[in-house]
Amino acid sequence: MKPGFGRVYFTRAGEFGGSAVQPEIRMNNEVVGRSVPGGFSFVDRPPGKYAVTTTTEVENAVTFQLAAGETKYIKTAVTPGIFVGHVTPTLEFPEQGQSDIGRLRYVGPKL
């Protein structure tokens, strides 16, 4: 990552239910990826306050502060909805996030 920036990883387990539900992941209203089953992606951003949102029938969000040199892990997971599953982002502990990435495939833009 560039000096003075932090990194945010987005993960989603490879669950069977809800695999067709792959909404955009937005960070401060900017599309930064999709919630893809069995996948992970990441973005590097300057320090600051961020809100990560996903939207299906409803919008779900998690907010956090990112410091220079810091890494955050956002897990997205499907929960039942009325018409379609809801994808909810949650902030993970670093140890869990690192472990998740080891079991997932990269689904972000080509590096």
Automatic annotation (TrEMBL):
<feature type="domain" description="DUF2846">
    <location>
        <begin position="6"/>
        <end position="81"/>
    </location>
</feature>
<protein>
    <recommendedName>
        <fullName>DUF2846 domain-containing protein</fullName>
    </recommendedName>
</protein>
<dbReference type="Pfam" id="PF11008">
    <property type="entry name" value="DUF2846"/>
</dbReference>
<dbReference type="InterPro" id="IPR022548">
    <property type="entry name" value="DUF2846"/>
</dbReference>
